[in-house]
Model the fold of this input.
Amino acid sequence: MVYLLVFSIKNYGVFSKQSSLIFIGIILSLIADTISTFKIFDWSAAIENIAFALTISLFIIAMVKFDFLNVIPIALQTVVDLISDSYVVIGEDFEVIDYNKTFAKDFAGIYRKAGIDEVVRQNYGEADVNRFMEFLHEAVSEQKNVSFEISKPTHEAIAYYFVEITPIYISGNHIGTIILKRNITEHKNNLKEVMELNEKLQSLATRDWLTQSYNRYFFDERLQQEIDLLNRLQVYGQGADKSINNFGLIMFDIDYFKTYNDNNGHPAGDELLQTLVTVVKKVLFQTDILCRYGGEEFAIICCQTSKSGVKIAAEKIRKAVEEHEFKFQDKQPGGNLTISIGAVYCSTANMKKDELIIMADNNLYLAKNSGRNSVVFTAC
Done:
């Protein structure tokens, strides 16, 4: 008897209902038998018969309605209790009908007949309760599955959960709702690690490791994209401003960089390249793309600009470098560190990438041959 009572209290679902009915039936029989044995009332025999009939009825209900001695509901309840996901069934009035052990562990203070909003409120903030109830009403009113994610701060980190709400209908009538909550924290963390790794790999594939400017591979790809955009607009952009995708290419390198390396060492040369990139970036627009072309030579793609815009950008870069005080610059010829620049403005369709690079590179060497620390510009 004691074991049956404890079993009824500790368990829920079909287990609780079966054991509760059997316990009540046995208690009724014991009470009636006691009354009959000690003849407490004159009509003790009648009470015993009534109690027997009630006991039989309760046993029949336990067997027929709740499948007592049938392994299927017991097996199903066992499976539901063993799964790691939280599972709860609520009635049409949103009161708790049944739940598994994981749900009882996750939601402190849960009990049958409790309002599901109160259960959520005891474990989450008011904003989460409102959001949950909105999704619940949406699922019931529109007769569809609704899923969403929620998060909850813990002592160690933030826990993430996937929630799925499934309303149950019979002949168009809403009779209840199944709510499933799955812990997806590990999945979220793994996804974050994968995304961070992808970003790192993307950076390694497109960035120069020393200066963190874009590398030659990215430069070639991006320059070809600009040429393709210009060609497309020239061919199909009837009635449009065909200059919108004109662009410029600026190429520059450090004057007497070999002298700088020989006098100060390669580590100092590496530091110089890093500082140079920082100085140049300060005078560029966000749409400009700075790439390390090779060695001490750099290239800049000036997107959607004008002829004068390319000239001004090239001169701003030259002046910014000239006016910056670099380490060991006093050892350079002339006592200053400078760069030479070759620039090209592109507004002509069907230009080849290699032809454009050669034009900018030739202008760069013309700048060097004309005394360095200068800009040579052409348009095509």
Notes: The chain has three domains: 2-72, 83-188, 210-379.
